[in-house]
Amino acid sequence: MMDIDVEEFDQVNYAHLRDANNLMDRIIDEKGYEFDTVMDIGCGSGRVTYLLDSRIHCHKIFALDIDLKSVKYATHRHASPRIQYSLQDISVPWAQLDPKIQQLEGKVDLIFSNRVLHWIENKQQAVANFYRLLKPGSGSLYANVTTLWDLFYDLPEEERKEYERMIYIPNEEEQVEQLHQLFEKSRFDSINIESTILRQHYPSEQFKSVILPYFPNLTKKYMVEKNGHKRNQIMASGLYEYIKNAFLRLYCREIFTTKNGQKSSEFELTYGQIRIVAQK
Ligand SMILES: C[S@@+](CC[C@H](N)C(=O)[O-])C[C@H]1O[C@@H](n2cnc3c(N)ncnc32)[C@H](O)[C@@H]1O
């Protein structure tokens, strides 16, 4: 789980909205505006699902999230007669999915997922579920995945090795290759995976209180230790602070601006994104 307050997050998800809009542009360019059954995997606050519903014409959007608070928030704040929000971990074995989701087997025209797959550890199972849900011959998947990069490259060798014993982050090429293999293994027919570098500016206070904690949480997914409790213990013993500072040092810049004579500052975050477009 992301360990982030959904309401707070909904106020600062500028980059999510921009990346989602870009993904929707690509869907519209390649597939048009008309879909019957759509799924939004990892819908979070529902803001992006609502946007999807307003940009494409569809009969039904099934929007899933593993986090109950997000599903409740989305149901309350971003409702539409076509959207059905449900609580669901998409990475469980097929037989454990909610029977209502299982009933969609082979019926889904479009799976959309914005900035979710990097949170999922059992990606192979999630991708296998996507495949079963999609309509044979025409079902498409469009996903944006946020990527983490090397957090230790400027450290002396010994220190670097010590951190790498705890956390393994594949490089960009390896991440693309791993995703390719996952989709191939699940028998997707055409698989297109691209990696890009993106930047986003955030007001400094919001950046420090909401966005920055996101990265140590995400880094947990790359820890060699798999036990959740032990991961938290290791993080609490100084790793959390190291990662926060490494992000600030390596991937953020504070930019000072003046508006109407008032001084203020923003943070520019540089992050990686992998886009997956796959057909069944
Ligand atoms: C960064 S948020 C993105 C939310 C939304 N797609 C957006 O673009 O604003 C990632 C979401 O994925 C959800 N998530 C993580 N793992 C999941 C899983 N295994 N199954 C379903 N949702 C998951 C999280 O709870 C979170 O709401």
From TrEMBL:
Coiled coil: none annotated. Residues 40-137 form the Methyltransferase type domain. GO terms for molecular function: S-adenosylmethionine-dependent methyltransferase activity. Pfam families: Methyltransf_11. InterPro entries: Methyltransf_11, SAM-dependent_MTases_sf. PANTHER family: TRANS-ACONITATE 2-METHYLTRANSFERASE (PTHR43861:SF1), TRANS-ACONITATE 2-METHYLTRANSFERASE-RELATED (PTHR43861). This is Methyltransferase type 11 domain-containing protein.
